[in-house]
TrEMBL record, chain A:
Protein name listed in UniProt: Histidine-containing phosphotransfer protein
GO cellular component, as recorded: cytosol; nucleus
Organism: Spirodela intermedia (Intermediate duckweed)
Coiled-coil stretches noted in the UniProt entry, renumbered to this chain: none
GO term, biological process aspect, one: phosphorelay signal transduction system
Main function: Functions as a two-component phosphorelay mediators between cytokinin sensor histidine kinases and response regulators (B-type ARRs). Plays an important role in propagating cytokinin signal transduction through the multistep His-to-Asp phosphorelay. Functions as a positive regulator of the cytokinin signaling pathway. May play a regulatory role in salt and drought tolerance during plant development.
A GO MF label: protein histidine kinase binding
Classification via Pfam families: Hpt (PF01627)
TrEMBL record, chain B:
Similarity annotation: Belongs to the ARR family. Type-A subfamily.
Spans annotated as Disordered: 132-204
PROSITE patterns attached to this UniProt entry: RESPONSE_REGULATORY (PS50110)
Role of this protein: Functions as a response regulator involved in His-to-Asp phosphorelay signal transduction system. Phosphorylation of the Asp residue in the receiver domain activates the ability of the protein to promote the transcription of target genes. Type-A response regulators seem to act as negative regulators of the cytokinin signaling.
Modified residues annotated as 4-aspartylphosphate in this record: 65
Annotated source species: Spirodela intermedia (Intermediate duckweed)
CDD domains reported in the protein's UniProt record: REC_typeA_ARR (cd17581)
Protein name: Response regulatory domain-containing protein
Length: 172, 204
């Protein structure tokens, strides 16, 4: 009874992720690749995504500390982030990355900065949602795992100004 | 869909993105390929140099991301095609950007296919006909190329998946492994009607 309730709850959380536009069809493709031999494939890929994207955003923040801003370097980093978003179906973050690149192509530094703030916000929202999903999903079959614990140890600069690192709240 | 068990093809996947390496590895393993992943073109060449025909481990296909720091996928493709023991290994390019000039350049340089990322299972199914090209066998050489792409870029291969599959089937006669490969590519899955992004086999 408990497991079937958890199953329904997980399905509901996942449905809302799709309905609210956080995820697209690519996430379902990942699920299709999961099987008995790789039962945690989706969560592993998502964990990799958040580790990697956190690293990229730290690099963006570090690049932003230098004025004038190296927009080319920023665009390279956001290009990588966009690619990772596409690979897991993180469509809202990906779309914001596309907007960043449009501002970059117009050499609109203010637009880039505003867009990056939205990227961080969407990224944090997605992380919260997916963490909730995997917690509920894991109740179907095993102990609760936290996306946050697996991300915390990886590649975050200890010297970064606190005001910029909103997502450290999730990572430590 | 899986290739015959005794002929486990080995694919070398090259991508600087850890997520994409995980994804391509899973896609290929799900299709019963043996997979080695590396994160750069230089490491790919190192791996290929260590495992040529004289060695036990052979590589039947290289699948590489286009945009990588240092050596791009295009640079890697060129290097493979101009290096004698490696030039017959089929190379497939992946890219997250749909840039026609980039695609043409890669196909002209000898890439078998050019896929838009993220790769799908239906894309992996299209690798099967190319997998035989670089595989040394004890059987007599095939009478004609499997997909015709390398030798008849204008005529027998186009960006239409149906034609590529038909060609694979029509040449699937010269050995068990080739037949298994062509039989393993069901036309309906290669057509991928729900797919809206373009697929390219050889430059039109």
């Amino acid at each position: 009874m408990e497991r079937s309730r958890a199953f329904c709850e997980a399905a509901g959380v996942k449905k809302s992720l799709f309905d609210q536009g956080f995820l697209d069809e690519q996430f379902r493709q990942l699920e299709e690749l999961q099987d008995d031999l790789s039962p945690n494939f989706v969560e592993e890929v998502v964990n990799s995504f958040f580790r990697d994207s956190a690293r990229l955003m730290v690099s963006v923040e570090q690049t932003l500390e230098n004025v004038p801003h190296n927009l080319t370097r920023l665009d390279e980093l956001i290009y990588q982030l966009k690619g990772s978003c596409s690979s897991i179906g993180a469509v809202r973050v990906r779309n914001e990355c596309s907007r960043f690149r449009e501002y970059y192509s117009q050499r609109n530094a203010q637009g880039c900065l505003a867009s990056f703030r939205r990227i961080k916000s969407e990224h944090a929202a997605l992380r919260q949602k997916l963490e909730a999903y995997f917690q509920v999903a894991s109740r179907r079959a095993g102990p609760i795992r936290s996306v946050g614990r697996s991300v915390g140890a990886h590649g975050l600069s200890p010297l970064a100004p606190p005001r910029l690192f909103i997502w450290q709240i999730f990572f430590y | 869909m899986a290739i015959a068990a005794e002929a486990k093809f080995h694919v070398l996947a090259v991508d600087d993105s850890v997520i994409d390496r995980k994804l391509i590895e899973r896609l290929l393993r799900n299709s019963s390929y043996q997979v080695t992943t590396v994160d750069s073109g230089s490491k790919a060449l190192e791996f290929l140099g260590l495992h040529d025909e004289r060695d036990e481990i052979e590589v039947n296909m290289v699948i590489t991301d286009y945009c990588m720091p240092g050596m791009t996928g295009y640079d890697l493709l060129k290097k493979i095609k101009e290096t004698s023991p490696l030039k017959d290994i089929p190379v497939v390019i992946m890219s997250s950007e749909n840039v026609p000039s980039r695609i043409s350049r890669c196909l002209e340089e000898g890439a078998e296919e050019f896929f838009l990322k993220p790769m799908q299972l239906s894309d992996v199914e299209r690798l099967a006909p190319h997998m035989m090209k670089g595989k040394p066998t004890e059987e007599p050489p095939p009478p004609a190329p499997v997909a015709g792409g390398a030798q008849h870029p204008q005529s027998s291969c186009s960006d239409s998946p149906a034609i590529a599959v038909a060609t694979a089937h029509s040449h699937g006669s010269s050995g068990n492994k080739r037949k298994a490969a062509s039989d393993g590519v069901p036309p309906e899955s290669s057509l991928s009607p729900e797919r809206t992004r373009p697929r390219f086999t050889v430059t039109a």
